[in-house]
Structure formats: structure tokens, C-alpha cells
Design a protein that fits this description.
The structure is a single chain. The protein is mainly alpha-helical. It has 4 helices and 2 strands, in the order αααββα. It has helices at about 1-20, 25-30, 35-50, 95-174, and strands at about 75-80, 90. A two-stranded antiparallel ribbon has the order 1-2. The N and C termini lie far apart (about 130 Å).
Amino acid sequence: MASIDGKEKHDAFNSRMEEKQPSTTQASAKNSPRSQKQQFQREKAATSSKQGQRQGTSHKSLQPGLQNPKDSAGCHVKFISDGQNNDGIAENRGSQMKISEMISDIFDSIPELYDAINDVKTHVSEKNSSISNNLKTSSLSLSQINETLMFFEKVLRAIKTSYNENSFGNKLNE
């Protein structure tokens, strides 16, 4: 029984959609973004007037002293010119409030971020100091190793020289 009711609703929806379908010559003119936008605004205005709400379709409909219209959520709607035509683009003030709250939260968290950045700077500075000290120690160690190697090189040269002289002297003695 439920599937029959669902099928009847589906068929009724399809028949209404077929009635709204324009002919093919009208379809190309109605497929432009501007005409679709105007159609949407007309349908929205008709729907809101049925509900007893005043709904503007462009910024021209707003006159000084009149209250701003509200969207379906009950939030005030502000119309902004998009710079390309005289139609307005509705901007939901509820979204503006959410964005304002998010920005406020970001500004509230700035001191915490500043503290975190200072902590990181301190940590990096400490690590840098530690690395610098290690490099100085390593540099000292390397210079000490270099001096030791130079000492051993001198000792080895002396031994080699002594050996060569002794072996030359031994050859003479033989």
C-alpha cells in the first residue's frame, strides 16, 4: 500500500514537472544563468508572498525606512550588487553572525597562540644554544684531535728519519 502511495506521489510530481517544462525553443533562452536566477527569485517571491512575508527580489525593492526582508530561517537578508547587473545577491546575515563569532574566537585565541609561539621560540633558542655549545665542544675536540694527529705525524717522521738513518748506517756497517 505504501509503495502505491509513493508511486502516485512520484507520478503526480512528474506530471507537474512536465507542465512546467518549456518548449525546446524557449529552453535555450531559459537556461542562461541570469534567466534561471530571475526565475528562482520570482518563485521565491511568490512563495514568500503566499506565506505572508514580504520578500524583495533585488536591491531596488528595498526603500529607505522599510525593514529588511527575512529569509526562510528568519534571518535578515542584505542585498549586495554584484557589479555586473542590477539584480542583487542576497547575503544571509545569520551566516555573517557565524563568521563574526568565528573571527571573534580567532582573536580571542591570539594571546594563547602568542604564548605558544614564545614557548616555541624559547625551546628553539635553548636547542640552538645547546647545539652551539656542542659545536664549540666538537670544535675543541676536533682541534685537539688535529693537534694530536700533528704530534703523531711528527713522531712518525722522526721514527722514519731515524730508521732510514739507522738502516743506512747498518748498510754501511755491513
